């Protein structure tokens, strides 16, 4: 085994220029996607978190705010967490690109994969729950005599809809990133492992 390499770290050797080019493209794509997650997450949380509208009915003011719907509260929290998590991962990606990313630690790759999977499920679940709540607000539920709230609070619904679109963008990017982190993890256990191990002794 080479000196200076810990037992939990695998040295990655590439078979040619194509693999190196693929590695560079994946690093850039991951960085761009994580930046998009951070940006869309902040945007979605800000749009929904600041959303409110006041209407007057028979001299009585009624205020609609995002805290009235638990699905929107959950969406704001999850997107805030996703943005913060992505910011941390952006720093890691930049450091990896500056260092060349020659050595991949299995434990780190596994941790990143697990966290990405959890965030992908969370963002998707939050967006789906908020979409269901938005559908009820837009179309109501005639069978249960639930009225169309968006007919009364159009500005509130429009801003929430924009935030929901950003949340779905976060979900899509997060699912894509989790697929990339899965590739980064499982390639350490692929067929190339035998060649790399035999070439390092």
TrEMBL record:
Annotated NCBIfam families: A_tha_TIGR01569
Chain ranges passing through the membrane: 28-49, 69-88, 108-131, 162-186
Native organism taxonomy: Eukaryota, Viridiplantae, Streptophyta, Embryophyta, Tracheophyta
Chief localisation class: membrane
Assembly mode: Homodimer and heterodimers.
Pfam family for this entry, one: CASP_dom
Subcellular localization(s) per the UniProt record: Cell membrane
Similarity remark: Belongs to the Casparian strip membrane proteins (CASP) family.
Domain Casparian strip membrane protein: 24-173
GO cellular component, one term: plasma membrane
Keywords, in A-Z order: Cell membrane, Membrane, Transmembrane, Transmembrane helix
Highest taxon of the lineage: Eukaryota
Membrane topology (UniProt): Multi-pass membrane protein
Protein name per its UniProtKB record: CASP-like protein
InterPro entries: CASP/CASPL (IPR006459), CASP_dom (IPR006702)
């Amino acid at each position: 085994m080479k000196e200076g390499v810990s037992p939990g770290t695998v040295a990655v050797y590439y078979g040619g220029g194509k693999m190196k080019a693929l590695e560079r493209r994946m690093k850039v794509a991951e960085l761009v996607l994580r930046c998009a997650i951070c940006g869309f997450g902040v945007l979605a949380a800000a749009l929904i978190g600041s959303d409110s509208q006041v209407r007057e009915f028979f001299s009585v003011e009624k205020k609609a705010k995002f805290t009235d719907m638990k699905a929107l509260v959950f969406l704001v929290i999850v997107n805030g967490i996703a943005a913060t998590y992505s910011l941390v991962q952006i720093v890691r990606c930049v450091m990896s690109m500056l260092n060349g990313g020659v050595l991949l630690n299995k434990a780190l790759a596994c941790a990143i994969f697990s966290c990405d999977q959890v965030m992908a499920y969370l963002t998707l679940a939050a967006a789906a729950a908020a979409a269901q709540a938005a559908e009820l607000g837009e179309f109501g539920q005639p069978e249960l005599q639930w009225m169309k709230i968006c007919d009364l609070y159009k500005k509130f619904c429009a801003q929430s809809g924009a935030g929901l679109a950003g949340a779905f963008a976060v979900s899509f990017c997060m699912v894509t990133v989790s697929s990339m982190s899965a590739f980064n993890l499982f390639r350490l256990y692929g067929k190339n492992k035998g060649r790399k191990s035999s070439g390092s002794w």
